[in-house]
Structure prediction request, 631 residues.
Amino acid sequence: MKKSIIYISIALALICVLGAAWFFLHNNTKEPANTSRRDGMIIDSSLSGDEDLLAVSGESISDLENVTDKDSEKERERIEADSALLSSIQETEATSPTSEEVESVEVVLIPEAVLIEDGDEAQFYAEESFLDVVPDDAISFSADEIPVSYDSRDVNGKSYVTAVKDQGYTYLCWTYVAMGAMESDILKHDDSLTPSDINLSEKHLSFYNMHRAEGSYGGYTDGDFREFVNADNEEGAWIFEYDTNYVSAGGVNDYCISLLTAWKGPVSEKDNNAFTSIYGRRHIFEDNSEKPSDAYASEYHVQDVIELPAYIDNSVKIKQLIMEHGCVTAGVCAEKKFFGRNKTTLYSEYGDGEIAIADHEILIIGWDDEYPASNFAIKPPADGAWICKNSWGETFGDKGFFYLSYYDQTLCSNNVAAYSVAKEKDGDWYDHNYQAAGFLTFMTNTLDDDDNYVTAYSASRNPYGISYTAQSDELLKAIGLMAIETYRQYEIEVYINPEFTDADGKDDSIGKNVKKRAVNIGELGKPDVSFEASSISGGYHTFELPKELELSAGDEFFVLIRPVTAAKLVYENDIDAVSKPNYDEWKNLTGNVHNHYEASGCSYYVSEDGKSFVQQNDKDFFVKAYTCDRE
Prediction:
């Protein structure tokens, strides 16, 4: 009997020791360096971290290379070069107007996760000349009755949400949410499809984010690209052998806008457009070396990306977007401490401290106004939560889904975005996309948003324009514009074969006066078409012309944009620069980012005296033109 008691006591002691050890390990596990990869995974360059990864990758410890110290002097020089370039852009003299009709503007640099700013809603609806103008995105905000709860997985028995995916050890949450958002929009507007019928490729999108893509219509953006390079010839840069560095390039919605409105995808996930491996320290690079299909072989066209600030006051508009498009993308802070039990809830709160920037992108597919605040690890101010889809596989949360508090502070400091996608034979399907600017963002860092930026002129109503040459006999049908404010209004004019003259103008890139083309405002005459256009949301919008214009091959058509309300004007700089080096969690060199953006000569800005539009040889505006072939 005594022996039995002793054995029982020993067993209980062992259970207590093991339980304490489990508790200690569970609560002291190193957080991943990049939470956008996979919650709960130990991502570390040390041997113990790699041992955790071996369970998935199947590698042996002997296969792991020794991590060497990086050349800190070369890295320091690269960082200083990045800083000097940024300072030079900030110091660029934008305009010194000599006419009261031209507003003075400055160059502003905005962190790449651009928060859409609020426009003047009262002025937007009071502008008399726009009273009969229907905003381009009006349908996105048309739902009158907003239910207490809504779930796009079950709307009258139909689902508009595709299967949960797993991004594994990649940095590509931004591509997974973009594909999911497009899939939901396609399902919402095609009753013949079911969620199993559509699966878009994250690999294709992420590849062309970091590779040159030739074949743009007219070739205007063929010189705009970014890529990874081993600028300092570091030894042991084995990832370059496979050209798969891009799987460790984090991103934001700006990247998706740049790529997808350029029609670099989307394509279906099959053959070389599908990842072979998403786990394993080496496998994510070695096993995905097959190049995806051509950049511009898109199966669908993204024509609008509707962006809104995600704060509480916009909750009705966000719900309207979900009802129209199936879901919206959103940014959150995925730190473990903010998740509730079993990762089924998330609420970030910072007290009086600085609100953390989003480190992970997710999809909001519905809501529940009555979801209890008491269900969160940290109790939010009130009930109510968004229903969210993640990209960490079905073992996360509730089969890949979780609840996000309406009051999540990181969420409310970022944007949501919905996608409007056209299929072939849709009324808004166009054959050709004229575009001069390739990328919104200048990128130096694969993880830190604060190191990457968007360039813009400060807010003004100064007019600007763009000129393209028709590549064949076509019909001009629509114009596309980018905005980083809500409630925008424009007067748009199109001129076919206007007279261009030569004008002296300073080229800031060389600090000298050079000959530039110009359009004399007084000699423009009557436009071939003019119309008013507006949008409620920020983001990218396509505005249909009131009448299509016939273009013959060789015609030069000039699109003039007159902003009615003051707003920033985003543009792409003419730049050729190499960043500091980037490394993954295992200290492998993923590369220096080589940004190469060439001014096309298509962009024009009002002259300082207000008498002409002068060619810009150091920048391009995000103004696209859409045409269809003439039969």
